[in-house]
TrEMBL record, chain A:
The UniProt record lists the keyword Ribosomal protein: no
Lineage summary: Bacteria, Pseudomonadati, Pseudomonadota, Alphaproteobacteria, Hyphomicrobiales
InterPro entries in UniProt: DUF6064 (IPR045708)
Keyword tags: Membrane, Transmembrane, Transmembrane helix
Transmembrane segments: 30-52, 59-77, 89-110, 122-138, 150-168, 175-192, 198-216
Keyword Isomerase applies: no
Name of the protein this chain belongs to: MFS transporter permease
């Protein structure tokens, strides 16, 4: 019987911060200039959230789903799993999340509100903050900008942005779609905590704010219809 | 009052240590590390080895792989032999293999690996995969990592030893986990090695496991001698005591290593590092004067206050 209970959090942190940051830099170098494209996609998602347009869900969720698959392949499978075998277990979860988001978009399972309300406005602001602000955490924590983690290519900002977008949606399925992103946010926070990085607090605050947004969203349509 | 005369000097040293000594900046040959005897065979191994947890998990980063290769080269040049790794350590095994290949497969290598899988049937293929990563024909020692599925794995390893595809069998634990289980295995199974955590701040094994190892003729490998660097970082805030010079220790790390390897039951400590100067410093700690029991208590008291 596996004696997993004998292991602590630090037992699974099998790489040093230096190695991890060099991995981030190598990933960015290999994928450049995809970062510009995914940041633009993130900003477009914020606009689609704040500005109601018919049929936007058919674009928003599938594109987001494809980005989860990009993260699964380009970062988790190709690079992160080399220094952290635990990432291999995350790959199918990320692919599943991608498939679910694509399906949710194509079948209209998670609708965005037909009018702008407090939730979508706050969500759009939070989304812009994650998409533009997350890469800046690298220099803010004393690392070169080359180690920046960008929405759509790296798991942490992608998971947090997804929680925000789902918080703006309607329908019970969005809660199911939040399971994997929230689980990853918790894993990311634990990893960053063990690495000695204060950014774990930002993950918790951003993820907590997104979940709170989902829990407090108005149930009645806003009178300010567009 | 301790004097050099009261210390154990070259008593544990043998001529069996690996050669190829590096030369210091002053052109002096590096000191030869003392060796300790593996009770089950009488084979001697240098008292300081090389761990690979975290430090050698550098993925495919070419610059970092070269850094690790330089550490391994310096390790062998300073008389080191035993390198320890595990399938649990990410890319550490391929990094060891890369370093060994660059050195042309050093003949003095003492390879210490582990089997770490909950399914006993996966043990042999995992060991075969580890051999492929190292690029060696066989391992000297294979240990059951953290006692995971230890009963079945020990049966497998015993069969491999009988078939001469490995030379020694062992078990490991760390950070004081499952000490009663370790004792039970040591008392009931014919193992050659046990690997535990031991340093002046983590001394639980002194009460039962180390005496049992002596009684049963089991060699002891010591992991986490510096608590993954946490201990030496804490100690660095305080000046090294003047009396450290009495046993030739020039750093806290050397004082800690001398404490560990001077225990009669300890065979080899396996500090991990990414730095060539540190690996040389570690090997140098296994040479020259060693602390006697009273001096060891003094070290434990000093480090325990850290």
């Amino acid at each position: 019987m596996p004696e997993w209970w004998t292991y602590g959090l630090s037992d699974f942190l099998m790489f040093s911060p230096r190695v991890y940051h060099r991995l981030l830099a190598a990933t960015n170098a290999a994928l450049w200039p995809a970062q510009i494209g995914t940041i633009l996609l993130g900003l477009a998602a914020a606009v689609l959230t704040a500005v109601p347009r018919r049929g936007r869900e058919r674009v928003l969720w599938p594109v987001l789903g494809l980005l989860w698959m990009v993260v699964a392949w380009a970062f988790l499978w190709e690079r992160y799993a080399v220094i952290n075998w635990g990432a291999l277990y995350a790959v199918p979860a990320f692919v599943l999340q991608g498939v679910l988001l694509i399906g949710a978009g194509l079948f209209g399972a998670v609708r965005l509100p037909t009018s702008r309300d407090r939730t979508t406005t706050t969500g759009a602001v939070l989304l812009v903050a994650i998409v533009l602000g997350w890469p800046l955490l690298a220099p803010l924590s004393g690392r070169p900008i080359e180690t920046a983690e960008v929405f759509g290519l790296f798991p942490d900002p992608t998971a947090l942005a997804t929680i925000v977008l789902l918080a703006c949606g309607r329908g019970g399925l969005r809660w199911i779609l939040m399971i994997i992103p929230v689980a990853w946010a918790l894993i990311a926070a634990a990893t960053l905590f063990t690495l000695g990085s204060w950014i774990w607090t930002v993950v918790i605050v951003a993820g907590g704010a997104a979940v709170a947004l989902a829990l407090t969203r108005p149930t009645t349509p806003s009178p300010r219809r567009s | 009052m301790h004097t050099r005369r009261s210390l154990l000097t070259g008593a544990m040293a043998t001529a069996g240590a690996a050669a190829l000594p590096w030369r210091s900046a002053r052109g002096q040959p590096a000191p030869v590390p003392i060796t300790k005897t593996i009770p089950s065979s009488g084979e001697a191994v240098p008292a300081v080895g090389l761990g690979t947890w975290i430090t050698f998990n550098v993925g495919t980063d070419a610059a970092l792989r070269d850094e690790c290769a330089a550490v391994v080269a310096a390790f062998f040049a300073a008389g080191g032999r035993l390198i320890d790794s595990s399938p649990m350590y990410g890319s550490s095994q391929p990094t060891v293999g890369y370093a060994l290949e660059r050195l042309g497969a050093p003949e003095t290598l003492f390879s210490a690996e582990k089997v770490w899988t909950s399914n006993p049937r996966n043990g042999p293929p995992q060991i075969a995969q580890s051999l492929s990563y190292w690029g060696v024909p066989r391992f000297d020692l294979v240990q059951v990592h953290n006692l995971l599925s230890w009963e079945a794995h020990l049966d497998t390893l015993a069969a491999m030893k009988a078939a001469k595809s490995i030379r020694y069998v062992g078990i490991t634990t760390s950070e004081g986990r499952r000490q009663r289980d370790i004792e039970a295995v040591m008392a009931s199974r014919p193992i050659d090695f046990v690997q535990v955590t031991y340093n002046p701040a983590d001394r639980e094994v002194e009460s039962r496991i180390l005496p049992l190892a002596r009684e049963r003729g089991i060699a002891v490998i010591v992991n986490r001698p510096f608590r993954e660097g946490e201990l030496t970082q804490k100690l660095a805030r305080r000046p090294l005591p003047d009396w450290a010079a009495e046993i030739g220790a020039t750093t806290w790390a050397q004082l800690v290593l001398k404490f560990i390897v001077s225990h009669p039951a300890v065979t080899c400590a396996i500090p991990a590092t990414t730095r060539v100067d540190h690996v040389r410093e570690n090997l140098a700690a296994a040479s020259g004067a060693m602390p006697d029991e009273a001096f060891r208590r003094r070290i434990a008291d000093a480090v325990g206050r850290a």
